[in-house]
TrEMBL record:
Domain ABC transporter residue range list: 3-242
Compositional bias ranges of the Pro residues kind: 230-243
Protein name according to UniProt: ABC transporter ATP-binding protein
Recorded GO MF terms: ATP binding
Length: 243
């Protein structure tokens, strides 16, 4: 299962003209790997996530999620695909104040029309996988910022998505808690085989990624200091065989 953006161009209306937010972007994220997307403010990172998450349809190019070209789908079909195959983790998890951690997850299953009993089991399993087995009955105000973000991550995994899109998950956390959240995302990506895209400003998180790309003025390019091939050790020329 993977996520593939091919030649994606996205423009927004800008007075009488159009502003190019994404310019022929290509990105391939295999299942089980994490791509970090970085770049200056206004460069197009959120636009890239919105297109990958099928929230915005690009002007041209294709977006393939779990083998389906989403740009060929109707709006209703896109909504179904998004619910089934895409998990989104926002900067602020936006938890409902009156619900416990387990209920925040169970709501997702209810929206999808799944039986409550299996949803409870799945919610508990996911909370355990993000280290919150003992906090299932807590409400948001009884959780730390890092714990709330973990609930947001577990919630995004409720539908067992092929693609996990994560927008600046550590911006409200201190360095240590932020690093723990990124470690968690890396582990879940491997365990669950998701194609994960992590947008982050924080360069400290980049080494955790399998791949780092930078967005500049809507164009994607490999991050110079993370994708450059490692220098090969100088090897002596093979000895010429004795004759
Ligand atoms: N709805 C919109 N209408 C018009 N222009 C937009 C819209 N959304 C974004 N833009 C413009 O598109 C460009 C890319 O914006 P985008 O939000 O994708 O950047 P970003 O890299 O996520 O920025 P930040 O790091 O500040 O969140 C910017 O020039 C922005 O002003």
């Amino acid at each position: 299962m993977n996520l593939r953006l091919t030649d994606v161009t996205l423009t927004y209306p800008d007075g009488d003209a159009r502003l190019t937010a994404l310019d022929r972007v290509c990105l391939d994220v295999p299942g089980g790997s994490l791509a970090a997307v970085t770049g200056p403010s206004g460069s197009g990172k959120s636009s890239l996530l919105a297109v990958a998450g099928t929230l915005i349809t690009p002007d041209s190019g294709t977006v393939t999620v779990a083998g389906t070209d989403v740009t060929a789908l109707t709006r209703a079909e896109r909504a179904v695909l998004r619910r089934r195959h895409i998990g989104i983790v926002f900067q602020q998890p936006g938890l409902l104040p009156s619900l416990t951690a387990a209920e925040q997850l169970q709501v997702m299953a209810r929206i999808d029309g799944r039986p409550a009993r299996s949803a409870r089991g799945r919610a508990m399993e996911l909370l355990a996988s993000v280290g919150l087995a003992g906090s299932a009955g807590r409400r948001p105000h009884q959780l730390s910022g890092g714990q709330r973000q973990r609930v947001g991550i577990a919630r995004a995994l409720m539908n067992d998505p092929a693609v996990l899109l994560v927008d600046e998950p550590t911006s409200a956390l201190d360095r240590e808690r932020g690093a723990a959240v990124v470690d968690l995302l890396t582990r879940l990506t491997r365990e669950r085989g998701t194609a994960t895209v992590l947008v982050t400003h924080d360069r400290a998180h980049l080494p955790a990624a399998d791949r780092v790309v930078e967005v500049h003025d809507g164009r994607l390019r490999p991050a110079a200091d993370h994708e450059a091939p490692l220098p090969r050790p100088a090897r002596p020329a093979p000895a010429s065989p004795d004759r």
